[in-house]
Structures are given as C-alpha cells and as structure tokens.
Write a structure and sequence with these properties.
- The chain is built from 14 helices and 36 strands.
- By secondary structure, the chain is of the alpha+beta class.
- The strands form 7 sheets. Strands 6, 7, 8, 9, 12, 13, 15, 16, 20 and 21 form a 10-stranded antiparallel beta sheet that branches. The chain has a 7-stranded parallel beta sheet with strand order 27-26-25-24-23-22-28.
- Strand 2 (32-38) and strand 3 form a beta hairpin.
- The radius of gyration is 26 Å and the shape is globular.
C-alpha cells in the first residue's frame, strides 16, 4: 500500500497544471486516506476516509483576505510534492517515554490563474490515526503583508453524528458540555459566561461519534500568531465551517509572508481509547528550542486557594473598593481578618507539603490589589511585586527552603494584559530573587487592550510570548483562562498546564459539574494538552466550611473518583486541591495522592466511552510502579480491568481505593474502602463504580 501511494504521487507530481487539475491527489497511511481535488469552479477541496467509511465528505479549503484578492478560487494546481517520515522523539515530560512520528505528507502548490496570480500551498500530513493540514503562503512578489479576514475551511460530516460541544464564546471555555446530535446544536438557551455565542457556533476540540462506530475529533495544532478556530454548524447538512476569532479591528489575523496557519486536525478511530492516546497533535508541533530542560520539574502541590472558593477565607486583605494601585497606603487599610495569604497560614501549608512529600505551595491573594480587581475593566490592577502587610516574602522564602518546599507564584491579571506585559520583567525578576520556580497566571474578565478577545491573535501571541519569556528565565507556568491548548507544550515544555475549561472550582460556586463532565474532558479539552483541573477534593459537601454561603453546594463525585482523576485527567502539575484539615481526616485515602507519579513512561487507556466512562493505566517515569484510574458518569457500573500490561512473572501489591458500600455522588459521596491484594500480569480486577464514582489503584512490584 505504501509503494502504491508513492508511485501514484510521483507520477502526478511532474504533470502540467491542466492534467493535475483533472486528477485528484491522494495520500494514505494504514486505514486513513486523504483526497485533494479542485472543484469544477477551481475551488480546492479535500475529503477523508477511514477504511471504507467516510470521515469527511468533500470539504472546501481556502483563505479570505481583507483586500478581496484571497484564495477562495478559482485556483489551479501547479505541482505537488510528497515525502514519508517515520521517526521517534522523547518528550521532556509526558504520558509516554517515546513518541513515534509517522506520516505521509502531500504538499499541493496552488496559484490564481488570473492576476494578481498569488500562490498558496496546502500541506497535508496523513497519520495512522488522522490527518493534519495547514495553509502556507510562500514569499512572493505582491504579497508581503496581508490580512486574513476569515478562513474557508470546512469539515463536512457524512451524517448526523452525536456531538460533545460547548458554545463558541470568544472569551471563555468554562462551560458544561452538551451532548446532542449535530442537528440539535443550539447555544441560545445556554447562559453566556462572557461573549454570547452565535446560536450554532461551537468550540474545538469537538468530539463526534458516528452511528457506524467511528470516533472523530476536530481541533488544531501549533496555534501561533493566529486566532483560535471555532466551528459554525449547519444543522441541516451537518457541515462545519471554520470561524476565526476576530480582533479589535474585525479582522482575524495580520500576517507577513512567508507565513503559515496552524494545523487543522482530524483524529479518527473505530476505538475510543485510541483517540485518547493519539499523539497526532503533539507531532504537529515544533520541538523545543530551549537549550536545557533539566530545570523543568513535574510536580504535585497544595495551596491557599480552595479555602477562598468555599468562603472560608478571602483573596483581599481589606473590605474596601475604589483602590488606586499607585497611591494606596496598604499598611493603613483595615484588615478584614479573613485574608488567606497570611504568613502563619502559608506556613501551615508548607508544613503539610513537607510532611507529605509535595513539592510546592501555591499562594493566591498574596499581592496588593484584590480589593477591586474584578469586573471593572481596570488597567492598573496589580503590580506583581508588592505583598500585603501580613505576607512576609523573605520569611516565607526562608521557611519554605528550610522545609525543602518551593512556593508557587500567582499572577492574576484581571484581563489587563497591557499592564501585565509592562510589568513582566520586574515580576519574573522578583520570582527569581525570592526562589519561585513556577507561576500560575490568570486572565479573568474582559481583555485590555479593549476589543481584543481571549482567543484572538493578539492574546494567542501574548500567551506564547509569556511561555517563551518565562522559559528564558527558566521558570515554569500554569495558565488559567488561556486559549485552549494545541500541543505547544512540546515547543514550550515549561508550559506545564492550562485551565481553559470548566474546572473543579465550579463545584464550589455554581451548580457544579455533572458527573459525566470528567468523562468528556479527556476527549475534548485535553486533546490539545494537560489541564490543571484541581482534583482531590475530600470534603465533598461544602456546607461544613461555611454553612450560610455554601448551602447545598457539593462536588458532584465520590471521594474515590477524586483520586481516580489524578490518573484519567493527565497533567504534569497536579494540585491536591483541598484544605490540609480535609486530608488529615482521611490520611489513608490521601496516601494515593502521595504515592502517585506525575510523569510517565507508558500510558494505556484500557476502557473508554465519551460521556460514560474511562479507565486508564500509567507507568511511573523510571519505575515499575503502575497507577490506574477508573471513572464513570451518573450511572453505576462494573469495570473489568485486565492487568496484562504488567511485567510478566513479576508479583505486584495492588492497593485499591474504591467506592464504599452505598456510595453515590449525591447521597453518600465520602464512602470509600481500601483493600490490598497480590496480582500479576494474568490477574483481572473487577471494579464496582458507584453513581458518579470511581476507583484508583496503585500497583507496586513485590521484592524490588
């Protein structure tokens, strides 16, 4: 089959334009095949198949430029190039030790047959699990600077697939997922978090399932100097058309040739677990240019954070408003007595981290400005270097160092990115001077410069610039309210994680996340990169922290499922998100969090179905220990787990953290049981998952 592919393309590559226009160009690897053709009107199109099944019917390609002389068509083919790549590379950190990058590439050279005769290349890469493609604008006379008004890319689906989607809000990804047929996509009844979405505009990654058993994921890779891609759904034809996030001027992207767009990605398989293990998006990103990476450390951390969400403490030092950053005497403010980021409280978290082997302590609310930080579209909000009077930076630096723990910085920008960029050099210098190795950034609220969006070109460039600048300073970052990831953690391995989705915090101050939520996220948001989901909440019912303000609020899982999320929701930076006193009441269950790794040599997705269940096994980096997480939606179910991934002939001790008798997410969420047994590669475990429940397993070799 490989030889047939190469011969066919070599025969067409040298033909004149008229002959090539008449003959479609194809590329194939294993079951996945790609066909490029020009329509009778000269418009470029493509189609994708998986075996004999259509993945995408004939779909349009093209770029619309602001001057009206874009690449909509008619176009002609002037030539094509092909190559085959089969190589391997080792990520700095990740789910597996080694990643194979195997694809067939087809580059189609296009030109406008009439003046101005502009040239455009479309590059396709066909993998065994899908297709990536992008537009490349070569250097050419008459096209140096250009503005992309919109992209004409289509994804025309062959049927009314089941879809897992969230609204196409240009400024927020923090929505619950809706599961519906494509014909039923309608964002109108959904309350907008930031900008109201168009009725049929949704976000990527989009997960789809066909009635004939195909799993299809549509997203993008290597989002650089370009806005994020959304999708407009035609509910009658089941076609999807790209929608680029506009900037303040209304245009999508300002570019200069030579230039290329991000990759558009289609991951496809007839097995749901294979979607979750796909490395297609990572492979379409560039390797890191950092000269060294040994300073990048995956880690577990606790933090002064959840206590604010459950109304036990506050971010702000004083209860006042109308603060001016430059002229406020912070020592004269009256403290409210609830400020969480005070020296004594932070020491308590440091002690807990040191006692239990956690590497870092995040502290939110340490710096001045939280009194009127949100919802004011205010530019001078924070300076990122001035602590509140009750937060002693030097004392805490020395105390943490004496305990072998690092503090994690927090930079909330309140969406005032112009302010943050002016202050980044000073802020990162402050971090280095005071021993901070990592920062959690935040972008809550409307963006400044005003008129820009979280997912537009301007902000995409900011996020990438921030990761690069931090890397130059050998600092790590966890970004919240960022554009959704597209595999750039390969290029910037210090970009450990992002939020960019509806996290665990929504359980504390809203209607919460449905039990199915965590069974969908790995098929959607996590396709592009790790998420800081903040699992590990043990005090499931939140009224005990503040009965008046938390009435009826709870996390919509069992305690055992919170443990399992550390395995099923991949991230190299994992927060033990609850308060120390919550863990101290359940130290037997907390042992799993202490033991669990955050960097891996191997990952196996054993069982999976989007919106229903996931069971994942991971092998710790450099060790023979394995960890398994199994989660379910609101339906209780039994999962049969074969341990054939274990080393043959080796005995292991399995410690199984499971839902207890009568457990359920709504009525009895804290019921759990822990049991031990000896197992080997021939063993099978039967896990009984409660409603909204889960199970977590550690597997350690015996006698090593």
């Amino acid at each position: 089959m490989k030889n047939t592919f190469l011969v066919a393309l070599l025969l067409t590559a040298g033909l004149p334009a008229t002959a090539q226009n008449a003959a479609p160009l194809t590329a194939r690897l294993d079951k996945v095949s790609l066909t490029f053709a020009l329509s009778p009107e000269g418009r470029p199109t493509y189609a994708v198949q998986f075996g004999s099944k259509p993945v995408l019917n004939t779909s349009r390609l093209g770029l619309e430029l602001a001057d009206g002389k874009g690449f909509e068509g008619p176009l002609e083919v002037t030539g094509s190039d092909t190559k085959s790549v089969d190589e391997s590379w080792n990520p700095v950190w990740g789910e597996v030790k080694t990643i194979r990058n195997h694809y067939q590439q087809l580059t189609v050279h296009l030109r406008q047959p009439q003046a101005p005769g502009r040239r455009l290349d479309v590059v396709f890469r066909v993998f065994a699990d899908g297709v990536g493609f992008r537009y490349e604008v070569p250097r050419q006379p008459g096209l140096s600077y250009f503005t992309v008004q919109q992209e004409l890319t289509e994804f025309n689906l062959p049927a009314n697939h089941k879809a897992f989607w969230i609204p196409g809000d240009y400024d927020s990804n923090e929505y619950s997922y809706t599961t519906s047929r494509l014909s039923e996509v309608d964002t109108t009844p959904i309350e907008a978090i930031q900008q109201k979405s168009a009725p049929n505009r949704i976000q990527t990654p989009l997960m789809l399932k066909s009635d004939d058993g195909l799993y299809v994921n549509i997203h993008e890779a290597a989002l650089v100097n370009y806005p994020a891609m959304f999708l407009n759904v035609d509910t009658k034809t089941y076609g999807l058309r790209s929608q680029l996030v506009p900037g303040a001027t209304g245009a999508a992207a300002f570019l200069q040739a030579p230039e290329h767009t991000p990759w558009r990605t289609i991951v496809v398989s007839d097995k749901a677990p294979e979607v979750l293990t796909s490395k297609l998006i990572l492979n379409l990103n560039e390797p890191t240019k950092f000269p060294t990476t040994d300073w990048i450390k995956p880690q577990k951390f606790v933090g002064v954070w959840w206590e604010m969400h459950v109304n036990k403490a506050s971010w702000n030092y004083a209860d006042t408003s109308n603060i001016k950053l430059a002229s406020t005497d912070w020592n004269r403010l009256k403290p409210n007595g609830r400020h969480g980021a005070n020296t004594a409280n932070v020491k308590r978290y440091i002690d807990f981290a040191a006692k239990h082997g956690l590497q870092s302590v995040l502290v939110e609310g340490w710096n001045v400005g939280w009194e009127d930080w949100a919802n004011n579209w205010k530019e001078e909000v924070f300076d990122f270097v001035t602590p509140y009077p009750d937060f002693n930076v030097t004392e805490l630096q020395q105390y943490a160092a004496s305990k072998g723990v690092q503090l994690m910085m927090h930079h909330e920008t309140s969406g005032s990115v112009t302010n943050y960029e002016r202050r980044q050099d000073a802020a990162y210098r402050f971090m280095k001077e005071h021993g901070y190795a990592a920062v959690k950034t935040g972008y809550v609220g409307r963006i400044i410069p005003r008129g820009e969006h979280h997912d537009g070109q301007w902000m995409v460039n900011h996020f990438n610039h921030t990761a690069a600048l931090l890397g130059q300073n050998q600092l790590m970052v966890d970004m919240h309210e960022s554009v959704r990831p597209t595999g750039l953690h390969r290029t910037y391995p210090n970009w450990l994680a992002s939020e960019a989705a509806r996290g665990n915090e929504f359980n504390a101050w809203s209607t919460g996340n449905l039990p199915e939520h965590e069974t969908i996220l790995p098929f959607t948001r996590l396709m592009g990169g790790p998420m800081d989901y903040t699992p590990g909440i043990f005090q499931i019912k939140l009224e005990s922290w503040n009965p008046a303000q938390n009435k009826g609020r709870q996390v919509h899982t069992t305690l055992a499922k919170q443990l399992a999320l550390y395995v099923t929701m991949y991230s190299p930076v994992q927060m033990a998100a609850d308060l120390p006193e919550a863990y101290e009441q359940h130290l037997d269950a907390f042992q799993f969090i202490k033991d669990m790794a955050v960097d891996w040599d191997d990952t196996r997705v054993l069982l999976a179905e989007p919106g229903e269940y996931i069971t994942t096994a991971r092998k710790a980096k450099g060790r023979e220990d394995w960890y398994v997480g199994s989660i379910t939606d609101e339906n209780p179910r039994q999962q049969t787990v074969k341990l054939d991934f274990l080393t043959p002939g080796q005995q292991y001790e399995a410690i199984i953290y499971a839902d207890g008798k009568g457990a359920s997410w709504d009525k009895n969420p804290q019921a759990y049981q822990i049991r031990r047994q000896k197992v080997n590669s021939k063993s099978t475990l039967k896990l009984q998952l409660a409603s909204g429940g889960g199970a977590a397993i550690s597997l350690k070799p015996i006698g090593r």
